[in-house]
Write a structure and sequence with these properties.
The complex is a heterodimer of chains A (496) and B (228). Chain A is mostly helical and 496 residues long. Chain A is 77% helix and 1% strand. Chain A contains 19 helices and two strands. In chain A, strands 1-2 form a two-stranded antiparallel ribbon. In chain A, a hairpin with a 4-residue loop joins strand 1 (54-56) and strand 2. Chain B has helices at 2-5, 7-30, 34-59, 62-90, 102-122, 140-156, 160-182, 187-215. The chains are: A mainly alpha (496), B mainly alpha (228).
Chain lengths: 496, 228
């Protein structure tokens, strides 16, 4: 029941918003849908904690701890971004971004935004709740298709370039994931019962992982890693990421960089579990470490020389995708726990950073560091403070929570004998830290200027403050059910 | 009538059609005109539908039949028609202008086919499927070659629309792989995949149209503003 409602509400909200005429009605429809989705995701998490895995339609949809965690994170980001989008798009309208469009009804751009975002969220939820590997693939392909026109939102030449890269690189990458899915199906094709629909279910294959064909499973994992890795923006398949994140409207970029990253990693984790149970953890672990460390390394120079703060955040996301993949590659109980903690913390901190960046770029009408003439903290005290705080959090400064998860990853790396990976992790982390402090610190704490002090925007600043409060609280205290959910998700990854 | 019951005959038919599919793929690499390319893609999809139909007939697998009919409707008819209408509307120069010239490209395609055959050898498990069901296994090599050549075409082409065609032929390779390895995915998964392909063509088509409108060129290598 919960599962069905969780999927149907955002699915229905898209077409409904498309049919509405007034902007206020679309806003209300989106907020209501995402509010309900958020509550349902919490209900699902509690249900999973109480009874174990929840399934629907003979296990076609199935939610274990891992799915419930990813769905909960997706729904939370979606709700915060929906609230933020109300303020953001109204500000865009005041700034005359949509001038020239028909005056009598809401701009088609706004209609697109409010109709596509629920569909985008729906496909992410479907990704995390589908048990069938084929449906998982179809869902993640649908996330690309639903978000392409969010990237082209402003209709500039650069947005089209970004969207084209995003769609084509994503499409080619995911075709490899499809091949991986076909091979995973083939590797279990000699087993009894594999001819039915259930033969492609993750739970079916995971239970029989020992009997899967090992050579095929290895090849399937390589292809799935390349495919879902493209979607997660691992180097060297990351080139679409800074473009898409800097061209999409800020709330959509926040969803892309946190919730969609989680979904892509989720797909990777599912394949990792199958492969490690079938051929042992060394083979997938080694590959994941390679891609993870490479992604961390590649983002360092780009962060150091970056001129545009939204692209800076995108390279941060590439770095964090690398960190999470490294954690998965290290594996074991500690690595898996660190991965799940990091995923949760990163989702909060990164979406908060994007929302702050959105406030700054709407106030100063630029995304370049140079053009922000005076210190952000002087003309936007709230945003400036939160921006700096979130930046400190994302580079792993204590007392924020990402320090704990990154420390845990390091501990797991050295315990597991991955000394090179651990050392490189520290080295690259230092580079990222330097870049972030230099650029964002300089921008936020700059000299006083003539720029007027920003007025209070209830929707935008309210959602930023709410998310900032969450970030501070989880630095010191995780609610017991959430911690239990994270531990459960780690158990799914590492085995019992 | 006897032939229609004889699986060996079916196997030969499937192999023949798979060979034709590969020939068409290489023809696509060599072809210079966009419209001809779209038609070759349509013919290739038609052959794929025929392969799926033959396999379904000899294995009496109804869900593969449905996949075959869907391939025929979506990939062999609907997608080519949509793409040709797009070409008419945007009035582009109708040549492809690849980066590497045609003779070298054809040679590279030949090398990729060889790789396809070597890879296919490595995970062929005859013991998993025996009897009439083993039909179509020799098409796996063709499927992998299609996939690899599709990748190559993707890299080798500059115009947005031709990249879409390359992506679609790559997708054809996937379909052939699914058919030859496992007689297709479960039906609902196939439906999801077809739906995605159709939506992807529309989304990419709209993007192509808008790129043409704004940049007045389909050469995506001219889109170079976003760096670093």
């Amino acid at each position: 029941m919960i599962l069905a409602a969780l999927l149907l509400i955002p699915l229905a909200a898209g077409p409904i918003s498309f049919c509405l005429r007034k902007r206020a009605h679309m806003e209300a429809a989106n907020l209501a849908a995402f509010g309900a989705t958020f509550l349902l995701a919490i209900a699902l998490a509690l249900e999973v904690l109480r009874t174990g895995a929840v399934s629907l339609c003979d296990g076609f949809f199935r939610a274990d701890h891992l799915s419930a965690l990813v769905a909960l994170l997706t729904a939370s980001v979606a709700l915060v971004c929906a609230a933020y989008a109300v303020g953001y798009l109204r500000q865009d309208e005041r700034d005359g971004v949509f001038d020239g469009d028909d005056e009598s009804a809401a701009s088609p751009k706004i209609r697109n935004y409010y109709a596509l975002t629920p569909l985008f969220v729906f496909s992410m939820l479907l990704m995390s709740l589908a048990n069938n590997l084929g449906v998982m693939w179809a869902a993640i392909e649908a996330t690309t298709l639903a978000s392409v026109f969010l990237v082209t939102f402003y209709g500039k030449v650069t947005s089209l370039e970004a969207a084209w890269k995003y769609a084509i690189i994503g499409g080619v990458g995911l075709s490899m994931a499809m091949f991986g899915t076909i091979l995973a199906y083939y590797s279990g094709h000699h087993l009894a019962g594999s001819d039915t629909l259930a033969g492609l279910n993750w739970s079916f294959l995971a239970e029989r992982a020992g009997q899967l064909d090992k050579t095929t499973m290895r090849l399937a994992f390589i292809l799935a890693l390349l495919g879902y890795g493209t979607k997660a923006g691992l180097a060297p398949m990351h080139t679409w990421k800074p473009d898409a994140y800097s061209e999409a409207p800020v709330p959509a970029a926040a969803i892309l960089s946190s919730a969609m990253l989680n979904c892509a990693l989720y797909g990777l984790v599912r394949f990792y579990v199958l492969t490690s149970r079938s051929v042992g953890a060394e083979f997938p672990g080694g590959l994941l470490l390679l891609f993870g460390v490479l992604s961390m390394g590649i983002s360092v120079p780009f962060v150091l020389v970056q001129k545009n703060f939204r692209r800076l955040l995108a390279y941060h996301t590439i770095d964090h995708a690398g960190i999470m993949v490294t954690a998965l590659g290290i594996g074991g109980k500690v690595g898996a726990l660190a991965l799940m903690l990091h995923m949760t913390f990163h989702t909060v901190a990164k979406s908060l950073l994007f929302l702050c960046a959105g406030n700054v770029s709407q106030h100063f009408h630029t995304s370049l560091f140079d053009k922000v003439k005076c210190g952000v903290i002087r003309s936007m005290p709230v945003t400036g403070t939160v921006f700096l705080m979130a930046m400190m959090a994302i580079v792993g400064m204590p007392p924020f929570s990402l320090f704990q998860s990154e420390f845990l990853i390091l501990q797991a790396a050295f315990d597991g004998g991955h000394y090179t990976a651990g050392a490189l992790f520290i080295l690259f982390g230092t580079g990222i830290f330097a870049g972030a402090v230099m650029h964002v610190g300089g921008m936020v704490l700059g000299p006083p200027g003539e720029h007027p002090v920003a007025s209070w925007h209830p929707w935008r600043d309210g959602s930023v403050l709410a998310l900032a409060a969450v970030l501070v609280v989880i630095g010191f205290w995780l609610p017991a059910p959430l911690l239990e959910l994270i531990r459960g998700a780690a158990r799914v990854v590492a085995g019992e | 009538m006897q032939l229609l019951q004889n699986p060996e005959f079916g196997d030969k038919i499937v192999t023949l059609m798979a060979a034709l599919v590969l020939v068409l793929q290489i023809a696509m690499v060599g072809q210079r005109w966009i419209v001809t390319n779209i038609r070759i893609f349509g013919a290739q999809s038609f052959l794929l539908a025929a392969i799926a139909g033959t396999i379904a007939w000899y294995n009496s697998a109804p869900h593969v039949f449905i996949a075959a009919v869907l391939t025929l409707l979506v990939k062999a008819i609907l997608v080519p028609v949509l793409l040709e209408r797009l070409v008419d509307r945007i009035e582009i120069r109708r040549e492809i202008e690849p980066i590497v010239n045609v003779p070298v490209s054809v040679l590279i395609s030949g090398a990729l086919t060889l790789i396809g055959y070597i890879v296919a050898e490595s995970f062929y498990r005859p013991e998993y499927t025996s009897g009439p069901a083993s039909m179509g296994h020799n098409t796996l090599a063709v499927a992998i070659s299609l996939f690899l050549i599709g990748f190559y075409m993707m890299i080798n082409r500059r115009k947005a629309l031709t990249q879409v065609l390359a992506l679609l032929s790559l997708e054809n390779g996937l379909f052939l792989a699914a058919i030859s390895l496992t007689y297709g995915m479960p039906l609902i998964v196939e439906l999801g995949v077809f739906f995605d392909v159709l939506v992807a063509v529309m989304v990419l088509g709209i993007l192509v149209y808008r790129i043409q409108e704004t940049v007045e060129s389909l050469d995506v290598s001219k889109l170079r503003k976003l760096r670093g």
